[in-house]
Amino acid sequence: MNQENWTAVDAYFTDTLLDPDPVLDEVLARCERAGLPAINVAPNQGKLLYLLACMKGARRILEIGTLGGYSTIWLARALPEGGMVVSLERDERYAALAEKNVELAGQAGRVEIRCGLAVETLERMIGDDEAPFDLVFIDADKENNPRYLELSLALSRPGTVIIGDNVVRRGQVADAATKDPDVQGVQRFCEMMADHTRLTATAIQTVGSKGWDGFSLALVA
């Protein structure tokens, strides 16, 4: 098996299980034209986020790492009336494009994009005593994953679901001798989930159009 096979299977599942979506197609095209890195979730992964949010019945969702707003739109579509996605993005150019994409998708009233360093924004949110979130999606720089987890827990409550993306790092997560700061961040992230008394968690490795990677899933007790 190789990347060609994995991409073909992802395409089959997307074509079979997802309805055609010209709006999201245009969002991806805009991101490509703007030169954003192609690190957004795949369409079937976006649908997974949507389903998880629906199954949770999430009304408040925190996303760490907006990029062009593709996953943001999937999450916003899962919200009931009055729900909100708060998405954090450090790059002003990405945030501006994401706002336009969210508007194109008709989700502007359900999404608030906050620009700045995520750690600083999260610390302000905690200081402002913001209401807790029902679902958290962590998909930013992996070196800071441990801090993102710590701060997300302060904005969670019993039953909050925390999803961490890109945790396999092409298998490097299992390398105890790695010097890669992003891999080390993921390793500490996983260790924190294992040791934390408020969390029960697992992680799944995947292959697909985005290559070999995976995600973690944790529940706040």
Folded structure, characterized:
- The protein has 8 helices and 7 strands.
- It is globular and about 45 Å long.
- The chain is of the alpha/beta class.
- The protein has a 7-stranded mixed β-sheet with strand order 3-2-1-4-5-7-6, with helices on both faces.
- About 45% of the residues lie in helices and about 20% in strands.
- GO terms for molecular function: O-methyltransferase activity; S-adenosylmethionine-dependent methyltransferase activity.
CATH class: Alpha Beta
Low confidence ranges: none
User: How big is the Rg?
Assistant: 17 Å
What is the straight-line distance between the termini? 39 Å
The helix fraction, in percent, is 40-55%
Give the number of helices. Answer: 8
Number of structurally distinct domains: 1
Q: Kindly report the average pLDDT value.
A: 97
Topology order in helix (H) and strand (E) letters: HHHEHEHEHEHEHEE
Fraction of residues in β-strands = 15-25%
Q: Biggest β-sheet, characterized?
A: 7 strands, mixed
Q: So, the CATH homologous superfamily?
A: Vaccinia Virus protein VP39
Write the CATH fold name: Rossmann fold
What is the name of the CATH architecture? 3-Layer(aba) Sandwich
Total DSSP E strands = 7
Shape: globular
Widest sheet: strand ordering: 3-2-1-4-5-7-6
InterPro entries: Cation-dep_OMT, SAM-dependent_MTases_sf, SAM_O-MeTrfase
Protein name: Methyltransferase
GO molecular function: O-methyltransferase activity; S-adenosylmethionine-dependent methyltransferase activity
Keywords: Methyltransferase, S-adenosyl-L-methionine, Transferase
